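Ticket opened by: R.M.
Priority: normal
Category: complex prediction / small molecule

The reporter submitted a protein together with nicotinamide-adenine-dinucleotide and asked that the result be attached to this ticket for the collaborator who will pick it up next week. Submitted input follows.
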Amino acid sequence: MRVLVTGGAGFMGSHFVKYLLKNYPDYKVVNFDKLTYAGNPDNLKEVEKNPNYVFVKGDICDAGVLEKAIKDNKIEAIVNYAAETHVDRSIMDPTVFLRTDIFGVYNLLEAVRKFGLKKMVQISTDEVFGSAREGSFTEDSPFAPNSPYASSKAGGDHLCRSYWVTYQTPAVVTHSCNFYGSNQFPEKVIPLFITNLLEGKKAPLYGDGQNVREWIHTSDHCAAVDAVLHQAEAGAVYNIGSGDEIKNIELVEKILKIMGLGKTMIEYVKDRPGHDRRYSINHKKISQELGWKPKMSFDEGLKATIDWYRANEWWWKKLKSGEYLEYYKKQYSV
Ligand code: NAD
Ligand code: TYD
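Result attached by the on-call engineer:
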């Protein structure tokens, strides 16, 4: 198969590019990425020279460049990881979120339709469902997004549905819980806490620390998207979850324990506006229909992630300077 992975230089997209090249040695994998602050060629060093790997620098909002990449490489399927992804940035400035996460998805769907591609997998989030008071979100839960990020992702997901219903464009949408693992940009909570602590700084915990997130390791998420890409029916929707629901205060305490540090390294900071209290995903459908199950335990995955950041300062130190520092200062008013 010839697959276009959009956003393949980011955190999860780069894991999926590497996963495909390793597990499907006869596939051609084209990574189409704008290289925003979150896109990082360092994530792909180990596959740069792989003859089945091609990198194209491009914006999914630019139909001309996108169509050329599809035509030149005779693409059969698209997996869309390209997005603006950080809730706090979306609160500071939603514009680019609306552009990439809605208009960009529209462009991809138009290209899938125009070139008659076999499938497009839209990687989306549990955040489109809003905050879970009780129980877990199923694929049929109503959308109730609470941040500009979540609402722009919801817009992209609605477009996928409408293109399937109206034009039979073969889009499949996944709603995932929070990802964690190596190569995650250090603005997201797990790498932010780990790298701050490695630098001798405190872990900034929002509000009362009682918010709950469900966490899935990169390896499990790649396997789930593999199942969706190869087995899902066009028009389907799948939740991807792990069942590992953890309060933020428990998360930071686990990190401190593994790193041998005390609770004095927690700094309670002002809460995020509109902060969703809890996310929780019911992933029965993907297990029953596609035979996928999560394998990595959270404690094992978290330890491996901490070990990775400890051993790879070269990767994250440079990301925490320049533009990032400006962002960090604004975010935490330091
Ligand atoms: P990320 O922020 O690490 O990377 C996003 C990538 O997309 C970057 O390489 C960036 O350069 C690229 N990109 C951004 N705008 C682009 C554009 N206009 N054209 C082309 N490329 C562009 O993202 P991530 O955290 O790995 O998330 C990947 C996907 O998974 C996103 O769609 C996100 O909504 C979804 N998701 C993320 C999580 C999570 O916990 N991180 C959870 C559920 C779903
Ligand atoms: P984040 O990694 O931004 O993911 P999302 O908001 O998409 O779930 O945040 C995860 C949780 O951690 C969320 O409840 C907000 C909280 N958080 C902090 O407590 N401190 C921080 O500095 C950040 C970035 C997040």
